[in-house]
Amino acid sequence: MIKLNPKLSQKLSYLLLCVATSLAIVPVLLIIFIIIKNGASAISWEFLTSMPKSGMRKGGILPAILGTLSIVSCAVLITLPIGVCAAIYLNEYAKNNLLTRIIKLAIVNLAGVPSVVYGLFGLGIFVMLLKLGVSIIAGALTLSIMELPVIITTSRGALNSVPYSFREASLSLGVSRWQTIRHIVLPNALPGILTGAILSIARISGETAPILLTAAAFYIPHLPHSILDQVMALPYHLYIISTQIPNMPENVVYGTALVLLMIVLTMSCVAIVARIYFRKRRKW
C-alpha cells in the first residue's frame, strides 16, 4: 500500500476541494453575468413602477412585483409563528417516543415533496373546498404549508445548537421551563431561526407551480385591493413573457429575471447580515 506524504496529501485534498467549489460557483456566476448583461438595459424607474401595456411587451412589471411581495409576506406571517412554535414543542416539550419520531420523520419527508404537489393540494383545499378562489390568501396558505417543514427543521436545529447547560443553569435557579425557553433558549437560537426563515422566503419567492394553481393571473392591469384578489407574480409572469408571447423583446425577459434575482439575492443578504449581527450578540 502506497503511503503519501502528509503535506502532499493535504495539498491534493485542498486542490480537489478548490476544484469542486469552482465547479459549483462558476456556473452560478455565469448565469448571473448573462442575466445582468442582457437585462440591465431594461431596468428603469418606469419599468419598476408602471403597469404593463401593449400585450406586456412594453410598460413595467409593478403588479408582478407587488403580487409576489404580497403573497410571500402573507405566507411568512402565517408560517413563521406556527413553525417556530412547533419546533419549540418538538424540541423542548415532546417526549422522545414512537409518535414524535414518526412526526419528525414526516416533517423531513414533507420538505422533499415537489412544489407542484403542494400546488394541487392548495387548489383542492383552499381554492375549491374552502371557496377562497384563486387569490393572494390561497397562494399564501399553499406556500406556507410548503415551507412549514423547512421552518420547523431549521428552527429545531437552531434550538438544538443552544448548549443544554444553559437550560440546566436556568432551571436550577427556579426559573420555569417556558421562561427559560423565552429568555435563554430563543435569544440564542434566533440567528439560526432567522437565517432559515429568510432563506426559505428567498426560495418561495421564485416558486411558480404553487402560485400558478392558486394565486397567479396571466394579466391584470391593476393592483390588488384585498387578499381575496387574484394577482400577477414575477415567476409566472417571467414564464408567460418568455414562452407565451411572440416577439417579446429579449431585454424585457432578462430584465424581469434580473428583478426576481435581485429580490432573492437581497433576501439572502439580509439573512447573512442578520445572522452575523445576532451571532455577535451571543455570549458563547
Explained architecture:
Strands 1-2 form a two-stranded antiparallel ribbon. It has helices spanning 6-39, 45-49, 62-93, 98-110, 115-129, 136-161, 164-172, 177-205, 209-214, 234-243, 250-281, and strands spanning 52-53, 58-59. Strand 1 (52-53) and strand 2 form a beta hairpin. By secondary structure, the protein is mostly helical. It is globular and about 70 Å long. It is 74% helix and 1% strand. The mean pLDDT is 86. The longest helix is centred in the first third of the chain and has 34 residues, at 6-39. Helix 3 crosses helix 6 (136-161), helix 4 (98-110) crosses helix 6 and helix 10 (234-243) runs antiparallel to helix 11 (250-281). It is built from eleven helices and two strands, in the order ααββααααααααα.
Percent of residues in helices comes to: over 70%
Strand order, main sheet: write it out: 1-2
Mean pLDDT: 86
Characterize the overall form: globular
Strand count, sense and closure of the main sheet? Answer: 2 strands, antiparallel
Q: Counting H and I runs of at least 4 residues, what is the number of helices?
A: 11
In the predicted model, the low-confidence regions spanning at least 5 consecutive residues are none
- Counting DSSP E segments of at least 2 residues, the number of strands comes to 2
Gap from first CA to last CA: 45 Å
As a percent range, the share of strand residues is under 5%
Structural class: mainly alpha
**Element string (H = helix, E = strand):** HHEEHHHHHHHHH
Using the CA coordinates, give the radius of gyration: 23 Å
